[in-house]
Amino acid sequence: MNRKPIVAFLLFLGLFLGRSAAADGLRALIFTGQNNHNWRETTPKMKAILEAGGRFAVDVTEYPEQADAATLGKYDVIVSDWNTWGKPAGTSWPESTRSAFLDFVRNGKGFVVVHAGGSSFGDWPEYQQIAGAWWELGETNHGAPHRFTVKPVADHPITCGVAPFSTTDELWQKPGIHPAARVLATGDDQPLALVTQFGQGRGFALLLGHSAAFMDNPGFQTLLCRGAEWAATGQVAPRDVLTPLAGYEYGQSREILLEVASLVQTAPREMSPQLAALVESDATLDGKKFACEQLGLIGTAAEVPVLARQLARPELALAARSALERISGDESLAALRAALPGATGTLRQGIINSLGARRDEQAVPLLVGLLPDSADALAAIGTPLALEALQAARPQPSSALLRCALQLRTVAVLEQLSAADQPKAIRVAAFIGRVNALGDQGGAAVQAALSGSDPALQLAAIGLLRDPAALKAAAERLPSLPAELQVPLLSALRDSGETAVLSAVTQAAASDDPAVRRAALAAIGTLGDASSVPVLLGLLATADKDERQTIADALTRLCGPDVDATLVRTPQPETIRALVARGAKSAVPALFALAETGDADAIGALGKLADAEDGPQLVALLDTAADRQPIEAALAALYRRTDDAQTLADAAAQASGPRKASLLAVLGVLGGDTALATLREALQSGDADAQLAAVRALTDWPTGAPLADLQAVAETAADPKLKALAARGASRLEALEFDVTGLPNLALGGTATNPDGLSSDGQGGPPAAAIDGNRNTYWDEVDNQRLYQLRIQMKQPATVRAIRIIGFHHQNYAPKDFEIVCDDRVVKTVTDAPYRDNVLMVVLPATRCTAIQLNITGAYGPSPAIRELEIYGKVD
Predict the structure, then answer these.
(1) Rounded-to-integer distance, Cα 801 and Cα 325, Å
(2) Helix (H) or strand (E) holding 846
(3) In 3D, which of 546, 559, 545 has the Cα closest to residue 519?
(4) Angstrom distance (rounded) from CA 226 to CA 219
(5) pLDDT digits (tens, 9 = 90+) for 674-707
(6) Within its chain, how far is the Cα of 493 from the centroid?
(7) Nearest Cα to 612, choosing from 576, 648, 587?
(8) Residue 87 — very low, low, confident or very high, per pLDDT cuts 50/70/90?
(9) How far apart are CA 530 and CA 871, in angstroms?
């Protein structure tokens, strides 16, 4: 091979692409700082972009106001994303810095502003003349970042060869533009890239680059690098990327590949002939393969001959063929066709595949002679001639023939492929394609398949049922089908919404097959009406758990004007629950009649369905009820729903006896200021039953608001039961209000012992497990003892204010009845300890001591297990 012409060409290419002397050794200084909210990410990104490939050596300063002439003199260009937005004009740069900056540009250097860098010095005309573009107060604005196309609009070294590119960024609308600035690129008709002159120097404004992520766009990077170089030197020396690409070998850094790919996207017209030249040079094989890959993205008819010649080279044939496949136009197809007769092996198959992928009809005569290797390609092309060839081939390529026939909607071929001698997947796909190709006449084929003996086609036919007549005919065949087909058919009938098939579906609900029964019940819920209620209820007696749930769902979903009335006439738990789920307010009168007999389901339903005006009737049920709890729950549900505690409070004020006690209990559940005021009045009423009901309600109050009320009752009540209940409630509310924030856990670091001398039980640990700060460990001792003792010796004396017990599991294996002893003095006795979320807080009178001991006489279970015992107070 004569290498001299290639070497000469590369020398010329090097002169064309090589960097000029002016571009070598350029230095840039980035002005940045905190006034740009994205500076911490955008500044490193710009530095990396400018330094990539040795374009610039870049320094960064966060203090541009400190720059002087000596500092600036080291650099060729300043790049700024720094701005004065929101800063007073007089606090930006001192006069010495301003003068040095103007001299820097005036004497032949460059200045670049990027995005927010244009929001500076509205009071400085020379700066704005250099920058060229800025944020104009009261005029400039922007929306959210969005995708738009950047279009070069001027012939300039910065934009030479740059194709329009798509980007996502924050687009400035109506920026201020200096009259002498020249717009190089726009986005949505807004100026994005501009150049200016100032003395012998140059300015470049790039209003893209709101964030580092947006700077990843190759188009942005190209404009930034070219703009910075032009501002520094007055020219843009094309970047030599092909020389390093020509020497690239697999395993080396991929940086050059990324750079070439970036240029390919931004300057395709410039790059495509250069890549084609590299393919025919003495570059490395890996470099040539990558060039072919990129030509597949940007190549045109002009590059097709170069790629076509590579088909004869085994080492490049795959890359060249793949590129030709992706280049649009007749020229690339003609090149592939021309290469096919002489190709062999994998290259021949690859060309076949490419012609198929391009659906090249002119290639069909060539491909017919290459069957069976060309079957898939002929199927993809999908012309009548290709179909004839596939039909005639022996052995017949069923899969390819199917795809071709589906594409052409050839009924006769699809019917042939539906025959029983074809593989299951082929005949099912062919059957579906034939039905679709037949259009309105496809129903007959569906019915024929459904009444046939091929289960695969029967199942496919079920999925194709559409019109009412076909659905009804299929429903009539239900009993004759095997169970595995009845289930999908019932599902199809359900989804169709065709009520004319209800009778057949109802008969299927009596099937001996459980799966068929459940499918039929589900279908009745969608298709049924009032007549289906007795059918569904009749099936309840023999239904298993799953079927009962399916029936309940069906009763809820039945449609029709008389369904609710029918459900009311057949009262039982399932129908009442269905009425609630259906929101059947019309059933309220009948539910009241049932509620008067004590029917708990009806009472519960009234809580969910009754309206505010039904409240007095529901309250009246309290007077005769043997069990008032269901009515109380229904009243709570009703008045919580209507958010009307006042009506209930008024009723409680006028009531007495059991009715009053129940209404007070309901107010306790509702909570709120109105309920609290009524309960406080009841405490002062002198009515023992009302007082007891009020204390019970206040004991479970969600906040500590009634704490003082309960403490007063605990101190003054004569009734021991009332006194004990109030004391317990006060203890709970006191704990609820107690805040341990800022108080140390004095148990940590202490010493735990068990004076009872009992052994550990099960997985329980020794006493130390209760104060180790680890909730996965716990203290537990042998079961069923009369007394359990746990003693914590603190590291030093302290004033104790509270203890908190983390039980083993919510009121299961946790202390129930116990004394709290501080230095051998009982300071609190707890009975029926009320744990919440497995936690019990007990507030103590401020007690100075060095040891806390629990004497436990009762537990929620055989023994009192404690995961953590925490002691809160202040160290003396």
Answers:
(1) 82
(2) strand 839-859
(3) 546
(4) 11
(5) 999 999 999 998 889 999 999 999 998 888 899 8
(6) 35
(7) 648
(8) low
(9) 65
